[in-house]
Fold these 2 entries.
Entry 1:
Amino acid sequence: MDERFTLIIFGASGDLTKRKLIPALWSLYQGRTLPEPFSIIAIARGDLSTDAFRTKMRAAVTDFARVQPPAESVWERFAASLSYCSGDPKDPALYVRLGRLLEAHPNRLFYCATPPSLSPEIVTRLGEAGLARSHGGWTRIIIEKPFGRDLESAQALNALISGFFRERQVYRIDHYLGKETVQNILVFRFANGIFEPLWNRQHVDHVQITVGESIGVGSRGVYYEEAGALRDMVQNHMLQLLCLIAMEPPVTFDADPVRDEKNKVMRALKPIEGDSVDEFAVRGQYGPGFVTGERVPGYREEPGVRPDSTAETYAALKLFVQNWRWAGVPFYLRTGKRLPKRVSEIAIEFKPTPHLIFRREPSGVRPNVLVLRIQPDEGMSLTVEAKTPGPDLQLNPVTMDFHYGAVFGSGPPEAYERLLLDAIHGDATLYARGDWVEYAWAALEPVLRAWSDGSTAKFPNYAAGSWGPAEADAFIERDGRKWRRP
Ligand SMILES: NC(=O)c1ccc[n+]([C@@H]2O[C@H](COP(=O)([O-])OP(=O)(O)OC[C@H]3O[C@@H](n4cnc5c(N)ncnc54)[C@H](OP(=O)(O)O)[C@@H]3O)[C@@H](O)[C@H]2O)c1
């Protein structure tokens, strides 16, 4: 079979193509992991020559690629595979031209790097032009996030896609899943025997998943007004992390077994009832404040944001996975913008010892905590109690620490490198399946509905540079626990 593949990017003049896609493809090419030969057809509305497009991409690679452009000759070889095609993704005539262009290209990967509102249009036009079918090779499509904005729209998008493509052709990207440290969660859990016996309700007190950002919304105000933290972070990245922590071992590390196990977690989530949303969810919005010593504006003063906006820039949730392994163990999720630092981590806090023999230890014994750090400072740590040297019996927590950078050297591949390569090879393990996306929206639906009535939001309710609203502290402290300060 012909191994050549062709990547067709819709939205090739956009930010994603410039900052992520072409730099990732370049790094793969440099590392000799991109299957060859290949062609990349870049589509956007602007009138541009292929040469002009290559020059723009050369600059993009210089600015954003992990692997910098080396000898001109290597760039020239890569660039020779790039071509530009001017056209409007909404225009059926584009797809007729595309059909002709692709005649000698049996293996086709379409990429919707356009605003999400255009994906249905592109899927429909591809389907109507007969381009969703196989043409002697394979045909696949990558759809960017966000995938819908609630359960109904996600179901409608899935239904539309399935009218033209089979599920195994569809790759719903969540770039979080391509991160090395996220992939490592499964390796950590299922390639090490010693943690599995502890990974359950008998030993785990609770789990905290934090995705904090120190930046504000910046230039993404208009987008964020429609999204908010719940849609932007929780529905996709954070629920995926929860699944990786809570899932049972899949029978093999392949797309369907892994995704079947994730779905079981979603199906076991305790539903949040409409009248008890406040018991399980807290929202916030940042006001002005200081981040790393610098004065920053509040969310309502950011460009593109309404002065009375009720979009949440902070969300915290308490979820329960109702099965034998996790019954009664809370999973606390929190995410926010303008928090004191950028940090993504999962902390598994273990139960205390059943009986303490060190009666004279005044401060008590702190629980063991296992932390999987996703970014930055990727790594893992385990905190255990140790005796402080000296005549008295004093205990202190010490940390066993593993840093990716120190062990494997810096510069892990970008998430998009791995994900693009997987789609080219036909491996959807790290992509979201249609049913998972619907489960994720369904789980959040009551919260989205309750929060859509912004009139009850008392915003802003946390200062930029703080760890979120006081209500979020009260929320976890009601359970006798505290948020970590990573
Ligand atoms: N940027 C990122 O880092 C990033 C990260 C994660 C996910 N994403 C997702 O990736 C997708 C693309 O993001 P992006 O930031 O690259 O988007 P973008 O820059 O806003 O748009 C990409 C391109 O789409 C075309 N386009 C926009 N509106 C159009 C319309 N009404 N009709 C026809 N073409 C139109 C434009 O090309 P022309 O006007 O030249 O035709 C534009 O350059 C989005 O779904 C986003 O959520 C982006």
Note: The CA atoms of residues 214 and 339 lie 5 Å apart.
Entry 2:
Amino acid sequence: MSHFEPRRLPTVLTGEELIDKAFRRASKVSGRNRKKKTMDKLVTVSNVISDYMKRIISSHPSYENLPEFYRELVDITVSIRKIKKSLAALNWAETAVQKVVKKSLRDIKKGKDPDIVLKSAYGRISSIISQIDPELKYLNEAKNMMKSIPTLADEPSVVIAGYPNVGKSSLVAKISTVKPEVATYPFTTKEIYVGFREVDSGRVQIIDTPGLLDRPFYRRNKIEKRAILCLKYLADFIIYILDPTETCGYSLDEQLSLLEEIEDGFDAEIIAVYSKSDMHTIRDRLAFSNLTGEGIEEIIQIIEERFKSLKFKET
Ligand SMILES: Nc1nc2c(ncn2[C@@H]2O[C@H](COP(=O)(O)OP(=O)(O)OP(=O)(O)O)[C@@H](O)[C@H]2O)c(=O)[nH]1
Ligand SMILES: [Mg+2]
């Protein structure tokens, strides 16, 4: 799907930490000639800051070129506009520091007192870096928030969807490699979890999504929007889980109404199944239980069948 790995974004230092790092490195510069030594110090500070800014800037993808799924998912999680503004500020600071250093080197060459030039350069560099401290902090926050964004492979995908608390994550844990958290309250799953399953014809992605309520898109919270993006962009096949016991906290009618909307609103083929079959005897659809294991093999069979004909990429 893309090589964007939000998990790999580096930690971003605060302004103070970055200044410390640069000045500490410069303090290690040795030499007998005071003029030469001071110039080396300045070059070191400039290099440390330049390298650092470039590393942070290049760790971010070009957001316009990301696949739509990622772009929308990133924008739900953080603000792409704010990230871009922050990166532009880092770029500005990098250039500004370089200018200060170049000017200082010229001044020393011209015969100004190296100690005085160095002191004034350090002051100006500190002030430039403190100016972008809010941007550095935002980029670090963004990095932490983006940790939850999964890296998806361009592979056939089954999306598990349904109302909150109906047993989606429990099923995903049973039939795939990922073990999302399971709990007795709704909206336990807030992010997208990606597990895999080997089928005869290759590997299928099994995607656990946050619970959805039956309401218009504009009223949905961030958590629900993540599920919608999976249905819209990733699903080759949707398994929609209905909890007829209503112990999830929502009526079967509400759950059926959302099912209809998903059937109308998305292209992917969809199958609806009943969960918690250990608690009821309704069998007008396939019913499964994560507790007794009833119906689980059938669900796996359905996935096998569905993906038999799909072309798998060579890996
Ligand atoms: N009796 C019974 N309880 C189940 C079954 N599957 C899940 N549960 C219970 O239902 C509750 C919700 O399970 P989850 O797997 O977290 O449900 P979810 O749909 O992922 O919930 P959200 O992430 O909040 O949307 C938990 O208390 C589970 O133990 C089942 O087959 N039978
Ligand atoms: Mg869940």
Note: Strands lie at 157-162, 193-199, 202-208, 237-242, 269-274.
